[in-house]
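I hope you will forgive my troubling you with a question about protein structure. The matter concerns a single protein, recorded as an amino acid sequence and a row of backbone structure tokens. Please examine both parts with care and let me know of anything in them that strikes you as inconsistent. Thank you for your consideration; the sequence and its tokens are set out here:
***
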Amino acid sequence: MEQIISDVMHQTAATVDRPVVVIGAGPVGLAAAAHLCERKLPFVVVERGGQVGASVQAWGHVQLFSPWQYCVDAAAVRLLTTAGWVIPAPESYPSGAALVADYLVPLAQLPEIASALRLGVTVTQVTRHGLSKSDTHGRANQPFAVHVRDAEGHEQVILASAVIDASGTYLHPNPLGAAGVPAMGEAHAAAWVYYGIPAVLEAHRERYVGKRVAVVGSGHSAFHVLLDLVELRRHHPATQISWLVRRNVDQLPLKYGGGAADALPERGSLGQRVQAAVESGAITLVSDWRTDRVTVTAHGVVLGAGTRTLAPVDQVVATTGFRPDATLLGELRLSLDEIVEAPRALAPHIDPNLHSCGTVPPHGVRELSHPEPGVFVVGMKSYGRAPTFLLLTGYEQVRSVVAALAGDWQAALDVQLVLPETGVCSGPADTACCAPALTDVACCAPAPRIATIHDIAMVLEAPAPRCC
């Protein structure tokens, strides 16, 4: 830890007159801006969209399962309250659009943030000024060079003391292919596939009404799509809904989430409602499915998995999650887990192969630091390919990071994060053992990460884990 403190302080001291560049003007990026304001550190926020919260607006029709009190950052609330803003009913649930209109837009309009906000500007690359990744001598004394391009194609380089990447993952969805790459024929079928959460009952209604629809993937994004399709089917019975999941029959009870045991009632309710729709026959569940081919025929789109083939459908919705794009940081020295693609110190706690608890240990600048001092990936992007991120996590991350950049290491290391439990804790071992032990933190302790032959031997010799 002493080395991290030394490296960050050396970096900020060497470039003290440069701003901190925040990439992304979503909830976590603007929270970083709020904390930088409070710490009186110079900063620039760069957002590729034409408005703040552009990615959130893309799923603006979706109601969040977290109430307002869990959707706002403390520093942002302090700044807004000073300007006369009043938080909406704290226990009510915003939609994505409401989160943007009633929180992010007012925050971005505060003079101290508006003056530092640059919309419609894309970050193309971040480097050390004049140095490649392989150059070591004098590296920490050089500012970061943030290469940007505006909508007209004009390019510029912003020299920065530090970089906080809160650009998220929404623009980089996972493919339908279960192997992590597009399935055979997936590109050819692009016109029939929607990646993300379509507005089934609103803007995209005509695409799905009365159609045969396959929803591929699991988790709460899939739940939202399925429930909207069920509502559409209630008025248009010809609409047919298939749900394709990887889990086998024995694992299906966990697929619906924690239900009444979920500390966020709306989150638990989603799974319960989907389960009821499956049991009523409104949704046809196809389990143990891993898409490996997509074929466009005269009768519709046909999905295949090994020796199995699904009946033709008219539309496919891929709720297969998202992944980070680290290419813009490719010339920096990052330490990313080879499995989850999250910072190495954080990855074991969020790897869905090990557990899927709603909680994650408190973490901040210590876990988010890289061999390249002064660069931090935060928010959803910090979770790599893990799917369990909540806004509260990102807000605590940026609070800690900004405190460190300001030299307040006592505040930076005093990370506190309490997340609502999902009501389930699943892992590769006997998942049933988690159910009676939800209150036992040890149940969800990360399992060993196997990286070498020595690690494999140690795991084989060790007692079997009690749970996850």
